[in-house]
Write a structure and sequence with these properties.
The chain has 391 residues and is α/β, with parallel strands linked by helices. The protein has 13 helices and eleven strands. 42% of the residues lie in helices and 17% in strands. The strands form two sheets. The protein has a six-stranded mixed sheet, with helices on both faces. A five-stranded mixed sheet has the order 9-8-7-10-11, sandwiched between helices. The relative contact order is 0.16. The structure holds 5'-O-[(R)-(carboxyoxy)(hydroxy)phosphoryl]adenosine (KG4) and zinc ion (ZN).
């Protein structure tokens, strides 16, 4: 099965072609094409993602990225006889009228191209920024109509869960996950603990009541004068401070909801306490490093304790940690330490490259969905973006 997958939920525009071979019980994956454009530099001056700008950039960048992914996968066969007919053109115009400019780009890129050998087009339908999600969906639907290929919607968070199944190499066996399974999803938009008794079944145990963990990293980074995205910056400074082994620090921050009886999180109070502690103060580099370490220690304590409580109450054979913040070495080290207390438990983190948003994970999630419900390839229902999509 060959899937073209599209991801535009936030500030990464991505298109991939993944090929899945082998038996359904033991599939192998090859990434035939993978093109990604990160808008980080564009959003940097706003200190966060600016939705209208994200949408504009997706419209501009997705058509050429799709072309590149398909070309790298050697799926673009040029034929001078093939032209997009005026009836087809009208259909595409209607599908794409909300994405000004995308229709023209698709005509010029794909006008003389034979139908590529694809079984499905997968696209993120949520959660994420709705204007951004719509770009991926409308372009996926337009190409689906043009070539007569089914379009399969994917939950972005399910994509993050499946991002741990493979590394980005050729012909890699997808790892097998044992159930029950607990997922700790920590990204710029989400912080949640989700329990799965079976594959593709999810029970959300708890989630953040305000800021997501990555968002807290980004906001605190901004407060102390670090560039966006703040997660890797804070992690770097925290690490520098740890290596110095400075004994005490004048900064100390709360661990919100550490002892609450549920599995919810809250990071806005912690963020505010960093704000109050640093307001109107001139910070030295040493201060920044200490703040970064204290902040990271505080969030790690909360994340690790809640995960431990969840594992105690919902015994699991697998723990998946995924989402952009899963790239954090300190959190990873502490989760791995925690896991040693559960001898049956196997822990999976995504590779660094696949921890942040990408479209390979969207292709794999679509494959898992199609495998469990082949009717998905026949469905004709209209596809809609859902910024608040839940499991
Ligand atoms: O999953 P992702 O790419 O996008 C969303 O779906 O939100 O996650 C992005 C988030 C950002 O907030 C970024 O600061 C954070 O992941 N992040 C990190 C690290 N690398 C990325 N946070 C902490 N430590 C890191 N090493
Ligand atoms: Zn994400």
């Amino acid at each position: 099965m060959i899937i073209l997958s599209i991801e535009t939920s936030c500030d990464e525009t991505a298109a991939s072609v993944v090929k899945i071979t082998g038996s359904p019980a033991s599939p192998s994956i090859s990434v035939l094409g993978n093109a990604l454009f990160s808008q980080i530099k564009i959003h940097e001056e706003f200190g966060g993602v600016f939705p209208a700008l994200a949408k504009r950039e997706h419209v501009k960048n997705l058509p050429p990225l799709l072309h590149k992914a398909l070309q790298d996968a050697k799926l673009l066969k040029v034929s001078k006889e093939i032209q997009i007919s005026s009836a087809q053109k009208k259909k595409l115009d209607t599908t794409l009228n909300r994405e000004q400019g995308a229709a023209d780009a698709l005509y010029s890129l794909f006008s003389n191209i034979k139908k590529p050998a694809l079984d499905a087009i997968a696209v993120t339908r949520g959660p994420g920024l709705e204007p951004a999600l719509w770009v991926g969906i409308n372009i996926a639907v337009a190409l689906g109509k043009l070539w007569g290929i089914p379009v399969v919607p994917v939950n972005h968070m399910e994509g993050h869960i499946f991002s741990v199944l493979f590394a980005k190499t050729k012909n890699l066996k997808l790892k097998t996950l044992n159930f029950p399974l607990l997922s700790l999803l920590i990204s710029g938009g989400h912080t949640e603990l989700v329990h799965s008794k079976k594959k593709l079944q999810y029970n959300t145990l708890g989630q953040t009541r305000d800021d997501a963990l990555g968002e807290a990293y980004d906001k605190v980074a901004r407060m102390i004068g670090l560039p966006y995205p703040g997660g890797p910056e804070i992690a770097r400074l925290a690490d520098t401070n740890r290596k110095k082994k400075t004994p005490s620090t004048r900064w100390s921050f709360p661990r919100p909801m550490l002892y609450s009886k549920d599995f919810d999180f809250s990071f806005s109070g912690l963020k505010t306490s960093v704000l109050y502690a640093t307001q109107n103060k001139t910070l030295t580099d040493a201060d920044r490093e200490e703040i970064a370490k204290e902040f990271e220690d505080a969030v790690t304590d909360v994340i690790v304790r809640k995960t431990r409580k969840a594992l105690e109450k919902f015994p699991s054979k697998t723990l998946i940690v995924a989402g952009g913040v899963a790239a954090n070495k300190h959190i990873k080290k502490n989760i791995e330490k925690l896991a040693k207390n559960f001898p049956e438990l196997k822990v999976f983190f995504p590779s660094k490259e696949l921890s942040t948003d990408n479209s390979v994970m969207i292709g794999i999630a679509a494959f898992e969905r199609i495998k469990s419900d082949p009717k998905l390839l026949k469905q004709k229902a209209a596809l809609k973006a859902d910024g608040n999509l839940h499991f």
